[in-house]
Design a protein that fits this description.
This protein is α+β, with helices and mostly antiparallel strands and 594 residues long. The protein folds into three domains: 12-225, Heat Shock Protein 90 (2-Layer Sandwich); 234-398, Ribosomal Protein S5, domain 2 (2-Layer Sandwich), CATH 3.30.230; 404-593, no CATH class. 42% of the residues lie in helices and 20% in strands. It has helices spanning 12-19, 26-39, 80-86, 107-115, 139-145, 157-167, 188-202, 204-207, 280-286, 291-298, 366-398, 404-426, 430-446, 451-460, 495-501, 509-532, 535-541, 544-548, 552-580, 583-587; strands at 44-58, 61-73, 116-124, 132-138, 151-153, 172-180, 218-221, 224-225, 237-240, 251-261, 269-276, 306-311, 314-317, 339-345, 464-467, 476-481, 485-491. The chain has an eight-stranded mixed beta sheet, sandwiched between helices. β10 and β11 (269-276) form a beta hairpin. α1 (12-19) crosses α4 (107-115). It is globular. The termini are far apart.
Length: 594
């Protein structure tokens, strides 16, 4: 009996669309493309986001948009066969060098189409420096033809100029992604912030010259050079961690570099190392630096503690991906914020570990998990004990109850919001830009910050600050520091805060944090209204004749007056509601009767 064979079919457009939905974050998509540059022997890589125009997201609110992404390198380039292979779904392994960062031959396509609908490659091969080649893979063209087709095109003058500007007359490649998915991409500030935050860690061993001692790597993000960043800060290790006597001021070993077995036969190993980072309140109390400076220097926050997994000296799993589930971990376990571990593997372990196409998630083998848990259980206990002892010591010494963690997250979110504002202003027409700058100056000077508030903001990142009272029984009020930006004051004497929040803080500390986030968001919204609510938007609410009769200063005072009246009315109504309510009955807390 003869078995019939038939060639399978596929819908090219649907495959491309599916590749773009694998699960890339924009930063990781761009870094996956940069992996190809490293595989091509590049010593310099530039990642750029081209911004144009603005999209209207509501009254008076515009958002800068991305027109294209670029990854440019000075690697060996691609000839005609190399370009064909680069666009092949499941590119041939023959093009990959030993210990390559590539794995499936799908990264370029999946990463590019997660960002936009058109992929362009402009390249000059080291074997033919007189020829610049260009190919274009456009999803819309594939959709129209129903076939997986791409165009071989002549590079434009701009293409050649851009390549020459980066590589001179040597080999190199430009990867350009256009027709971006603007409706689903995060704000530009988040993409750039994520890139700058991650590149130094992802390629630490390359930027440091450890992975390729003969050819160190340099990477720039929008023309800003990125420095290598070791998340374990091994160069600062001052000895082994003694959790009973640690002063919280320095980096300590918890687990020295040690091999762990990955396979039953004992042929494949990984390296494990764990450090303990400083305790920010202890560092601040000692006078070495502010809490904010310490948190920023060591990246001490909820998404950075845990394990970093590197494959061939390239980060493939960030701690927030939880490649190793921490033993007994609670959600956002703040007493583990100083716990940093690293696992180093090579491509020899690929068959043992389930690494996804985006190279951002892995599944450790059972034997590896067993070995790691044997080693990390005591490490975690020591880390928690050391952190909690230092927290207790600082609180005893300073007599404080801190709201530092929620403030740190609000501060980080506000920095991103301020970058969004800056990107928006970059692309505004000059008259609108001048108006925005004037309104921003007015917003800052009309609600100035005092010296002590400014110091707490600069040193500790306190965007939410509690005060004894506010005029006219307001619950909250915004204020501005000329260089650091926005804060919100919360009135501790207000009946709502005094009776509903203070009485619950010990039992439910998250309640106070939630109120902080809400009131800062209200202050942020008010600031946006004052700074970004233009003349056209006011005209939507008031008769045009009225608007024309008002000067810019009068319009600013009008909006400020409305917001002031709003805060006072909300404060008065909240106070009256709480006075009339039976709080103990409503919230079931007998302590409120005392």
């Amino acid at each position: 009996m003869t078995r019939e064979q038939k060639e399978g079919k596929f819908n090219a457009a649907r495959v491309i669309k599916a590749l773009g939905r694998i699960g890339y974050e924009p930063a990781f998509a761009l870094l996956d493309i940069a992996d190809n540059s490293l595989s091509a022997g590049a010593s310099r890589i530039a990642i750029k986001l081209e911004k144009v125009g603005a999209s209207d997201t509501g009254r008076g609110r515009r958002r800068a948009t991305i027109s294209s992404f670029y990854v440019i390198d000075n690697g060996s380039g691609m000839d005609a066969d190399g370009l064909d292979n680069a666009l092949t779904l499941g590119a041939s392994e023959s093009y990959y060098t030993p210990n390559t960062l590539s794995k499936f031959g799908m990264g370029l396509k999946s990463a590019a189409f997660s960002l936009g609908n058109c992929l362009e490659i402009i390249s000059r091969h080291h074997g033919d420096l007189n020829k610049v080649r260009k190919v274009i893979l456009d999803y819309d063209r594939v959709l129209d033809t129903g076939r997986y087709v791409y165009d071989v095109d002549e590079p434009s003058e701009d293409d050649v100029v851009q390549l020459n500007a980066f590589c001179g007359s040597d080999s190199g490649t430009i990867i350009k992604i256009t027709k971006p998915h603007t409706q689903t991409l995060p704000p530009i500030s988040e993409i750039i912030s994520s890139l700058r935050r991650r590149v130094g860690i992802v390629y630490y061993y390359y930027l440091k010259g450890i992975a390729r001692p003969d050819q160190p790597l340099s990477i720039s993000i929008d023309d800003q050079e990125i420095e290598p960043f070791d998340p374990l800060f091994m160069s600062e290790v001052a000895g082994d961690l003694d959790e009973l006597n640690w002063n919280g001021l320095d980096v300590r070993w918890i687990t020295h570099p040690t091999p762990i077995q990955l396979d039953p036969a004992g042929q494949v190993y990984a390296d494990l190392e764990i450090t303990q980072l400083p305790h920010p309140p202890s560092v601040y109390h000692s006078g070495l630096m502010s809490r904010k400076e310490c948190r920023e220097k060591y990246m001490i926050e909820s998404g950075t503690y845990g394990f970093y997994v590197y494959r061939n000296h390239r980060l493939i799993a960030w701690p927030e991906d939880r490649p190793v589930k921490l033993y007994g971990e609670r959600v956002r376990a703040s007493d583990l914020y100083a716990f940093r571990g690293r696992i180093l593997i090579t491509s020899d372990a690929d068959d043992l570990l389930n690494i996804d196409i985006s190279k951002s998630r892995i599944q450790l083998s059972e034997i590896a998990i067993d070995q790691i848990y044997d080693k990390i259980y005591d490490a975690m206990r020591k880390s928690r004990s050391a952190w909690n002892r230092r927290s207790e010591a600082v609180q005893r010494a300073m007599g404080e109850t801190t709201n530092s963690l929620i403030n740190a997250e609000i501060d980080r979110a506000e920095e991103l919001a301020e970058r969004d504002d800056a990107f928006e202003e970059e692309i505004l027409p000059p008259p609108e830009k001048a108006e925005r700058e004037q309104r921003r100056r007015y917003a800052a000077t009309s609600k100035p910050i005092d010296e002590q508030e400014g110091q707490r903001l600069r040193e500790q990142g306190e965007r939410v600050q509690h005060v004894d009272t506010l005029d006219h029984n307001q619950l909250w009020e915004r204020a501005h520091d000329p260089s650091e930006g926005l804060i919100v004051r919360i009135n501790q004497s207000h009946r709502f805060y005094r009776e509903l929040i203070l009485g619950q803080q010990e039992k439910n500390p998250a309640l106070s944090g939630a109120l902080s986030v809400l009131l800062f968001a209200l202050a942020r919204g008010e600031y946006g209204l004052v700074c970004q609510f233009g003349v056209d938007s006011i005209a939507d609410l008031l008769p045009s004749g009225v608007v024309k009769s008002l000067s810019e200063q009068a319009r600013n005072r009008l909006i400020e007056g409305i917001m002031q009246e709003y805060r006072e009315r909300v404060g008065a109504n909240l106070s009256e509601m709480i006075r009339r309510m039976d709080i103990a009955a409503a919230f079931g807390d007998s302590r409120l009767d005392e």
